[in-house]
């Protein structure tokens, strides 16, 4: 009993000095230990079975659970696993020793075995997208090796979707070649990118100031034939297309520009050169209308003859195309015919339309519905007739190209605000249509303010001044208006009186002082007229000194007559009648006819307060001080 008790105690609680492996599992016969760790459950199960072969485990490892028969067959027939690369769509065969290899089996293989046709297309698309990403990564690596920045390479790669697909197809087609039969997809992609020479081409295009979006469009447009880009670019240099314009022409020209031969494009350039377009202008024209290079020769000939048939010579045709290249290659023939027909409705002939388009070809780029018709309605509302519109069109055709609401309407409203009558606005626009092209705040308003503050024009008369002389709005204040005002003030004319003279004859401020000075000197020195005569008739400065003033004065001196300036400078017929009437009445007076003296004094415009013979002496003495100041 003494020996059995320690044995029992040792069996249940063995000491640390006598413990053996068998003692650790002495309680397994009654209650198996709980194992919470499953990642090494297989080794634990083997150890327990080795130490206690008679004991049947109450649990099984998770990897020994019963598998489907199809998976067991796959594992049993699996060979050594082949290397896998990103984007591969071929099923990989797992190794026998890899218990979790079924997770790496291709989804396409499972779908083919299970008959899942619905997901087949989706998985193929995902596989192709993976390969595209692989090609983009390889392309970026090639760009970095070519001394490009990673940001630039990434941005450019994002715009080369068509080129990426081309590389993928080429890399797949290399698989059938014996030298690439055992190579990986990545290796074939690198070979395609290197052999295409795309990286040096990108550097060359970037050197020609072409941004990466245009480079991407150009490479995609080439459809893999990158040599056509360099060939077309070299040809464009021969017609004086330079720098960034080379890429712009190739991008905007159309899909066929890279497929056209240089002979076809040389034929187009040669024809245009024979019609008046200089060779040195060709680069500018093609840069702004590259669509011409994609037309066939017959279409170019028809478009050119459309303008030449309107009486336009080769010089006008060449300058027209140079000023606005889109006039030849941007519009359709139907649109061109419609716009020419609309212009003829203003009363223009074909020859006049040809001259108009040669002068302002930008008219052909304007819309009839959006530009021309609203302007015509607006002008008609303000009383402009068809002849007036014709004058506006021929004088300032750019008005039919600018926006109505933002450019024309505010200026017309300003004319109303300063006092121009509504029935006179149409005449103002017809008389001087250039004012609609001036800046309201930089040109028109400053001139009006100058007339009100520096030229003596009153607020009441400013509308009349602008209505009679809208050309004043086009004069320079510093070079024209201000010098003229100072000159008239220097003659002794008061500012208020000058304002009245301007209201009577607004064109007074438009003459150069070099023209005004000789006329004034002749009036005061030779004709010996007072300053009031000039104030009463400021239109005196509008007549020619050699052609009208001096000959009329000589006639008056020869016949001993003296008329007011208004009647002295009237038309030849009226002046001759007035002279004959005055001579006849004086003849009757000399014969002693009764009341002849009264008749002579009653001749309209005749001045009897000054003897003609003594005029040179009296007026020289009376106005000597004023004349001395003005010399």
Automatic annotation (TrEMBL):
It holds the Pfam family mTERF. GO terms for biological process: DNA-templated transcription termination. Residues 83-102 are annotated as: Disordered. Keywords: Transcription, Transcription regulation, Transcription termination, Transit peptide. The keyword Transcription regulation applies. Gene3D superfamilies: Transcription termination factor 3, mitochondrial. The keyword Nucleus does not apply. GO terms for molecular function: nucleic acid binding. InterPro entries: MTERF, MTERF_sf. PANTHER family: CGI-12 PROTEIN-RELATED, TRANSCRIPTION TERMINATION FACTOR MTERF2, CHLOROPLASTIC. Belongs to the mTERF family. This is Transcription termination factor MTERF2, chloroplastic. The lineage of its organism: Eukaryota, Viridiplantae, Streptophyta, Embryophyta, Tracheophyta.
């Amino acid at each position: 009993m003494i020996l059995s008790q320690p044995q029992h105690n040792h069996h249940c609680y063995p000491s640390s000095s006598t413990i053996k492996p068998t003692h650790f599992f002495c309680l397994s016969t009654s209650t198996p230990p709980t194992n919470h760790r499953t990642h090494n459950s297989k080794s634990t199960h083997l150890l327990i079975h080795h130490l206690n072969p008679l004991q049947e485990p109450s649990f099984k490892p998770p990897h020994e659970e019963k598998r489907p028969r199809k998976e067991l067959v796959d594992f049993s027939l699996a060979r050594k696993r082949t290397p896998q690369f990103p984007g591969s769509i071929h099923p990989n065969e797992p190794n026998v020793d890899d218990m979790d290899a079924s997770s790496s089996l291709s989804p396409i293989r499972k779908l083919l075995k299970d008959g899942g046709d619905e997901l087949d297309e989706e998985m193929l698309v995902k596989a192709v997208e993976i390969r595209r990403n692989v090609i983009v990564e390889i392309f970026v690596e090639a760009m970095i090796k070519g001394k490009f920045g990673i940001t630039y390479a990434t941005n450019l790669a994002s715009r080369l979707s068509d080129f990426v697909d081309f590389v993928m197809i080429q890399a797949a087609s290399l698989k059938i070649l014996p030298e690439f039969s055992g190579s990986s997809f990545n290796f074939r992609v690198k070979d395609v990118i290197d052999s295409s020479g795309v990286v040096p081409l990108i550097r060359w295009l970037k050197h020609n100031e072409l941004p990466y979006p245009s480079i991407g469009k150009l490479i995609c447009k080439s459809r893999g034939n990158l040599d056509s880009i360099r060939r077309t670019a070299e040809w464009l240099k021969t017609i004086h297309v330079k720098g960034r314009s080379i890429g712009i022409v190739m991008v905007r020209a159309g899909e066929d520009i890279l497929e056209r031969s240089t002979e076809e494009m040389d034929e187009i350039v040669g024809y245009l050169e024979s019609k008046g377009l200089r060779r040195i202008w060709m680069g500018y024209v093609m840069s702004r209308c590259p669509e011409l290079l994609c037309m066939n020769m017959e279409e170019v000939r028809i478009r050119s003859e459309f303008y030449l048939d309107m009486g336009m010579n080769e010089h006008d045709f060449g300058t027209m195309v140079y000023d606005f290249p889109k006039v030849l290659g941007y519009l359709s023939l139907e649109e061109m015919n419609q716009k020419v027909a609309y212009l003829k409705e203003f009363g223009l002939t074909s020859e006049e339309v040809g001259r108009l388009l040669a002068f302002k070809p930008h008219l052909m780029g304007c819309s009839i519905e959006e530009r021309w018709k609203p302007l015509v309605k607006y002008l008609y509302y303000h009383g402009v007739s068809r002849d007036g519109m014709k004058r506006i069109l021929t004088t300032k055709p750019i008005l039919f190209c600018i926006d109505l609401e933002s450019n024309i309407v505010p200026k017309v409203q300003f004319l109303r605000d300063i006092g121009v009558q509504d029935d006179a606005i149409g005449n103002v626009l017809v008389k001087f249509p250039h004012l609609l092209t001036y800046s309201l705040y930089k040109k028109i308003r400053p001139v009006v303010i100058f007339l009100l503050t520096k030229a003596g024009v009153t607020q009441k008369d400013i509308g009349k001044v602008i209505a009679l002389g809208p050309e004043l709005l086009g004069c320079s204040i510093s070079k024209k208006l201000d010098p003229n005002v100072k000159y008239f003030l220097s003659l002794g004319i008061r500012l208020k009186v000058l304002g009245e003279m301007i209201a009577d004859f607004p064109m007074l401020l438009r003459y150069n002082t070099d023209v005004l000075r000789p006329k004034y000197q002749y009036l005061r020195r030779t004709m010996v007229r007072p300053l009031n005569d000039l104030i009463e008739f400021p239109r005196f400065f509008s007549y020619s000194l050699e052609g009208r003033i001096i000959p009329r004065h000589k006639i008056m001196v020869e016949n001993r007559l003296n008329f007011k300036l208004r009647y002295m400078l009237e038309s030849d017929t009226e002046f001759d009648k007035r002279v004959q009437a005055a001579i006849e009445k004086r003849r009757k007076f000399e014969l002693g006819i009764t009341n002849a003296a009264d008749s002579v004094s009653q001749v309209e415009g005749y001045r009897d307060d000054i003897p003609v013979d003594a005029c040179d002496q009296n007026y020289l003495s009376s106005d000597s001080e004023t004349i001395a100041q003005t010399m």
